[in-house]
Structure formats: structure tokens, C-alpha cells
Amino acid sequence: MDYQNRAGSKFGGGGVASQSATNADRRERLRKLALETIDLDKDPYFFKNHVGSFECRLCLTVHQNDGSYLAHTQGRKHQTNLARRAAREQKEGKGNDTAIPGLLAGVQPKRNVVKIGRPGYRITKIRDPGTRQNGLLFQFQYPEITPGTVPKYRLMSTYEQHVEEPDSKYQYFVVAGEPYETVCVKLQAREVDRREGKLWSWFDEDSKEYWVQILFKTDRDERYSAVPGLAPGQK
Questions:
Q1: How many other C-beta atoms are found inside a 10 Å radius of the C-beta of residue 198?
Q2: Where found (predicted)?
């Protein structure tokens, strides 16, 4: 801190620093420290909003400039939230082999991927000729998918999504493959047969097509699936 050139002080003396001057100097020192350890382009929690301010997605705070944000990352609140997230992810079994400078080890960073649109798709109704089970065959086209990336799917309950009002009559089939947008298909809330050969997925590396087959359990299977000694699909 500059003690002798402050307004109101004698040359070579330097009066008592005000609280605002002390805070400004502390923020500047923290900003310089953060600049040596953090690259904002790689910070998963750094976000510039539409009005030009900077936001911390981890702490949900708003900052007027990058210096204020960098000082915030070195503060107690941000570091505490990083530690809490690391502990939670370690408890959930989410490992992390890489670390970003300035972030605590064990924190899984969010990837900022520029989306290029939705994949092409085709949905076909099918029926198993042996069990007469109804199902769906999904085909997704990912011609510009990131090399080495394989699309993944997930069946989501109506209470996990936050787009529509929860309705127990439906469930959601979600497919993701970077850099394409994640797509979702709304399905009836019927129990899916997860036995081998009934539920499967396959990605064709040559044609860049992702195939997923879903077969629903029959009414009999759903009715007796919880009966002891009677396996699902048993005749």
C-alpha cells in the first residue's frame, strides 16, 4: 500500500489508512495473486452476463469487473463452497484426475462447450416377435460429434426435470453427445425391460449414428414383477 502519497498525509509520513483504502488495497493484492494462478478462460464458474457484469456460478454472486471476481475467488466464501462441492462429489464417488490452477483438488469442473444445434433423429415403433413387447427404436445422427466421444442416454423420471410440471404419467428419455445440444423425448411412464437384449445402445463410428432400443414390460410382467419366485418375463 502507498502510505506516503495518500491524500492528506505529509511527505514521507503517511497517515492512518481509512477502512475503504485498506479494503481497496486488499482487493488489489488478491487480484494480483489470483492472476498468477487462475486463467479466467478455463474457470468453469466464471460467467459474463448480458449487461457486462461478471458472475460466480458457484457462489451466485455478481461482480462489476474481473478484478472483483478474482478477489472473490481468493475469499473465504468461494474457497468454502469449493471445499463443500469437493466433499460432496467425493461422497458421491465422482473422481477427478485433473485439476485447474486456483481450484481445490477434487472439484469436477463444468465444461463450457459451444453447442452447434440438435442432432438429427428418427423414432420407430417396434414389437418383439417372441414376447410381443412394444418398444421404440431411436436413431440419432451426430456427423460433427467430438472425436473420441460416444453419446450417452438416460431415462429420467418426471420429478427429476424442471421444464414441465411433474406428471406421473410420463417419463423422459434424454440423449447427450457433445458438441450437440442434449435432446429429450417424452414417453409414457411404463416400466422398461432392462434385461440383456431388450435394452441396448450402439454407436456406429463410421456413419456417426447412435442407436438405442427400448422395450416396455408387458402388463403381466409389470403386475407380477414384485412377486417372490416369479422372475420378470417368466411364463
A1: 19
A2: Nucleus
H helix or E strand, kind and range, residue 81: helix 76-91
β-partners of residue 1 are none
**109 upstream amide cis, omega within 30 of 0:** no
Q: Are 34 and 74 in contact (CB under 8 A)?
A: yes
Q: Which of 22-26, 32-36, 131-135, 179-183 has the lowest mean pLDDT?
A: 32-36
Q: Summarize pLDDT for 89-135 with one digit per residue, the tens.
A: 888 765 544 444 444 444 455 566 667 788 898 999 999 888 888 99
Domain layout of the chain by residue ranges: 1-108, 120-224
**CATH pick for 120-224 out of 3.20.20, 2.40.50, 1.25.40, 2.60.40:** 2.60.40
Joined together, the cell numbers standing for residue 184 give 429429450
- When pLDDT is averaged across residues 73-81 and rounded to a whole number, the result is 86
CA separation (Å) from 93 to 86, 90, 108?
10, 5, 11
pTM for the model: 0.47
Q: Which residue has the cell 465422482?
A: 94
Q: Are 204 and 196 in contact (CB under 8 A)?
A: no
Cα–Cα distance for residue pair 148/230, rounded to 1 Å: 42
